[in-house]
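Hi Y.,

Following your request, here is the sequence exactly as I used it, all 82 residues.
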Amino acid sequence: MFKTPSVTRRLGVPPCQRGSRTGETCPDLFELSDGNFAVIGTEATALLDGCLPVDAIRADYERIVVIDRDTLIRAKRDIPDA
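Below is the corresponding structure, written out as tokens. Let me know if you'd prefer a different format.
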């Protein structure tokens, strides 16, 4: 039986500390209890699917999301090395 993972922690700082005051642009990164990561970003599959390198493969159930550079850079310190 599949157990839905829970969010264990945020990577980086909350959106409000990155300048989001309205709640309209809140990209975020989270570590999950199963060791995977969840990303909140802008859905861009239709826009970027044809731009991927030839060796990149995306399953039908996968989506391409975009997060701003600042979000990822601020999360870097929280991303495990291994």
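The helical segments are 45-48, 69-75.

Thanks again,
Q.
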